[in-house]
């Protein structure tokens, strides 16, 4: 064996002397052929690049950003408020003073839709954020630790999964009163379960990969492996799930308010406005149109953003 | 297989028991009592008698014990809001309506959803693609209460071709079922579409086609069968939800089902009814989940039951 190696080496040495004309100078313009002209992008830069290609998703994102800004600033500078009644101007159609008209108490509908946006958007994003945190920690720990720990925590998930959601939502609303925090609590109580299951499955699959073993060999701590590597590598499906949670939470809030146990009057939410308008739908159909349009357009935009992210995050779907 | 089902059922019973316990203690946290409305102008003695008759004066843990004892001997108790009416009567009166509507909504959702998803995955026609995208988008962005209102307005009030309330003939079932089915149709068509396109890219599809298997056979025998797994996973819990009805749809179409009881029982503090509904819903979800797993394993042998 060793003899052979020596032989090869000898041969190599003898062949080393090459004639001068064996090489040719590379022409100037070909020198940069191997140079990668494209700037190297991080994962999220790449996602953003892919996301930008989806026009519908970008338009939706712009719409949601405008909606958020309007919900924050318009109520600050408007001369109307959500509960100021003007009984000499009831059920006015859209005009310069009242863009969307007024309702049966003479309240400006445009400003009420904006206050509704405040409630709906903050409930939606807060619920998604809370679910994200609980879901990642719960599912991550279950998937990573496994064994009896996983068994017990997943049984709890099973119990929560078989809870009649509507009944529990109402129970919580009655125990903690009709305000935005109990709406949030009620929405969050059961919706994190799906995400926890998903994160658990992802982490369980990821932890068998070689890179996880490599990280352990170098001596990375468990927390670092779990949150820096495993969770980060399954971030795609997690983000998509979270974006779809925002519309779900907005749905639930609108529904609760529509039924009359959500946000209490005279606070304006899209659900309460739709419910108020239902009684006079035949005579004043426009009053129904505004909150409905707000709900549907927001839902639509959030779903398009979710689809766009789904495509951008998953290389297989491009 | 048999052993697996028994094990799952046992786990299900434990889950249900935990669910009952949580619900029992949670519902007693609601301020107010089931008799708050009728107690005005009633003498203290009568009040005490009523409270005693329903054992609401006992410590809560004793009440829980009594409830469990009655429950396991098959006595679900009487409604507290509707005096003297057994819970069994309330549920057996309402459940048939709710289940009928739920089941028809389920069938509509599965059939239309899979059809729409499959057609849009294979068809190259622009209008079919457009239609399926439209339904999928409407389904996720329109809340069911708005869709129900829209249906009533168009078909009930404007065109006058469908009745807007009551349950006399099959025509009465159309609108409630459609209103319930809208968002499941959208979900199922999306799931079918994406898993079908995924499945068509697999190597075994190319193999089957290159061996000369007819295209139709490849689609129905191979692609659709494998692509239906995510739909099954989604459809199991969906069936449980649909069978117990929807508050919105039932209250809008004035259907005397049990869907609306989920709201009225809690707001009326009807403790016994709350418990019964929780058990009903919980056991439906648990059974639906077991069925889902068994069906998935039957379709795809790679999924093993353990």
Number of helices of chain A: 12
DSSP summary: helix tally of chain B = 13
Largest sheet of chain B, in brief, is: none
* Number of domain units of chain A: 1
| Portion in strands of chain B | under 5%
Secondary-structure element pattern of chain B, one letter each:
HHHHHHHHHHHHH
Rounded to the nearest angstrom, the radius of gyration of chain A is: 29 Å
DSSP strand (E) fraction of chain A? under 5%
> Which shape of chain A, going by the Cα principal axes?
flat
The main sheet of chain A comes to:
none
Looking at the overall shape, the CATH architecture of chain A is: Orthogonal Bundle
Oligomer: heterodimer
Mean pLDDT of chain B: 81
Question: Looking at this structure, what is the CATH superfamily of chain A?
Answer: MetI-like
Greatest interface (CB-CB under 8 A), with counts per chain:
A-B, 31 and 39 residues
Which percent bin holds the helix content of chain A? over 70%
